Amino acid sequence: MERLDKVLSNLGYGTRKEIKQVAKKGLIKVNGEIVKDNGMQVNPEVDRISINGEEIFYRKYIYLMMNKPDGVISATFDNRDETVIDLLEIEHQVFNPFPIGRLDKDTVGLLLLTNDGELNHRLISPKWKVDKIYYAKIDKLVTDSDIKKFESGITLDDGYICKEAKLEIIKASEEGSEVMITIQEGKFHQVKRMFEAVDKKVTYLKRVEFGTLKLDEDLEEGEYRELTDEEVATLKGF
Ligand code: URA
């Protein structure tokens, strides 16, 4: 059980003081009855609560899929740059979500955000071997020899030996190539550093899959949506 005003204020319906005023005006109902006591104990999972005639949609956790745009950083706060949190509506910001893993400032595509710490922990842990699939443009010719090197474990500039990665060539040309790459790790700048290790440069990077989820093609860059219950369930069922 929780205080009514706490539940409503956590969901972004105002400060506790504001909610007290709203309650006084008789605008809050719990299970169909007007409740003027803002401190009433409620069970938000069970009780039907409405404010101004609108029933609240209570949930403890939120799960968002964003098509991250270029130029925005995957952090909750930054002094200089716009963050992915800045792109969220207030009604989602009130849940204090954070990104699951990171994409570089210039990387676009699938980014998950949640306030579910347990799921975050599992999805970023190397133990769970979550596939992350990226589409990348490369400045040079990507060859079968690169595919083999990625398969057997690329050594990064700091000596770290990457786990096996799957590289598929979509287009190979001296002027520039297009590839899909699947990795299960999330080292800092990993894909870019893997290509640097074979003397090539990533010129465009987009994450298209994360675990069981594919980037929703209806999401323009900068847009996001909540995951469906089914998507959350498959993600947790990993
Ligand atoms: N690898 C990178 O180099 N950058 C990303 O943003 C993600 C993976």
| Structural class by sheet pairing and helices | alpha+beta
Tell me the quaternary state: single chain
Mean pLDDT score, rounded?
96
| β-sheet strand percentage | 25-35%
Query: How large is the radius of gyration?
Result: 23 Å
CATH architecture of the largest domain: 2-Layer Sandwich
Domain RNA-binding S4: 2-62
Protein name: Pseudouridine synthase
EC number: 5.4.99.-
Pfam families: PseudoU_synth_2, S4
Would you give an account of this structure?
Belongs to the pseudouridine synthase RsuA family. One of its GO terms (molecular function) is rRNA pseudouridine synthase activity. Pfam families: PseudoU_synth_2, S4. Helices cover 22% and strands 26% of the residues. With 238 residues, it is of the alpha+beta class. It folds into three domains: 2-55, Structural Genomics Hypothetical 15.5 Kd Protein In mrcA-pckA Intergenic Region, Chain A (Roll), CATH 3.10.290.10; 63-126 and 212-235, 2-Layer Sandwich (Alpha-Beta Plaits), CATH 3.30.70; 131-210, 2-Layer Sandwich (Alpha-Beta Plaits). Strands 7, 8, 9, 10, 11, 12, 13, 14 and 15 form a nine-stranded mixed beta sheet that branches. Strands 3-2-5-6 form a four-stranded antiparallel beta sheet, with no helix packed on it. It has a two-stranded antiparallel ribbon with strand order 1-4. The longest helix has 9 residues, at 16-24. The chain binds uracil.
